[in-house]
Amino acid sequence: HLANNLKLSGAPQLNELMTAIGKLGDQDNPSVFGLPSNIDRTVQRFNSQKVIISLKQLQAVSAEDIKFDREKWSQILGPIWKLWQTIVKMEEFRKIRIKPQQLSSPDPVDAFVYMEVQNMLLLAETINETLEGIAKVLYSSGLLTSKIEKEATNLLKSDVPEKWNMQWVGPEQPTQYLRSFAKKANALLKWLVKVEKGSATKDAVVLNELFHPETFLNAFRQRVARKIKCSIDDLKLVSSFEEGQLQGMEILHLRDLLLQGAAFGGGRIIEQQEENTLELFPLPPCLLTFAPSSQPSIYSPKMTVELPIYHTLSREHLLCRIDVPHVGEADHKVIGGVAIFLDGSDQVAPSKQNQLLLN
After folding, report:
1. Looking at residues 170-177, what average pLDDT do you find?
2. Quick one: CA torsion of 164, 153, 138, 94, rounded to 10 degrees?
3. What does pTM read for this prediction?
């Protein structure tokens, strides 16, 4: 049968096909295509995004607005500068010093956090230099150099300056980029405190707090490899949503993951039964580690389905794939597009240069 509500014999006759077609409603049932019952919520969100993009195009500045006019530029760029001053305190960031010996820490995870903080501070200076340069032109006697004009033009067009994206590719809209940066930067400072206390991965971690979660997973894999004296290439990713399944291993507890296309219960993927279910289902903490490839799997392959973990709902950037226990047919989960996400918004787009496939 093609779906729960559309059953045909192995070799259907014409009259059987005509009868089945006659029973079809005016509106397609998602189950006919192997999709979850609440897929319409995803479609609505996608259509909303298209409308928002169209509205932004209508609001795009004209060629006359791009030409330097202090009053017009102040109306458009002034709020961006004020937002930056509100959400980021550069004087506090400048008190932070990352030492060379910290960047070469023997613990790969600690070294990653120090490097991540250092790169965050460099990006903060880059953003501040751009916005401060524009503010001096608008509010004092600063000179409008070709560099400042180019970056201001980007912002006037609601584009993120190329120099920012070279350090971290985030949301495409400038104010969203700044807010996302500030959120991650503040979270990263808490990671720094944990590293200095020797407890970076002691508590559950949120990968979406990091600018480069794929690099963090690689660092954790390096740590495990050194601890068990195994080649990195000989390690495989192991995961479970059940406490006690990964005993005797160094484990990451990942929280705030979101599931789309199915529900979750009893440590496994289950079917969505009602149309009013959430589009994104909050998952319990996921236990994750790396183990030698020769080590037996904790679940039978027939019990699990391989699910992708994406950075955002756009599904453009894959972080890794994990095996998750499930109920029902694995093929139905694949056809239905069941997947896990770090971020439930459409704002963050991770670096195209930093994608990781963990087997």
Report:
1. 91
2. 0
3. 0.80
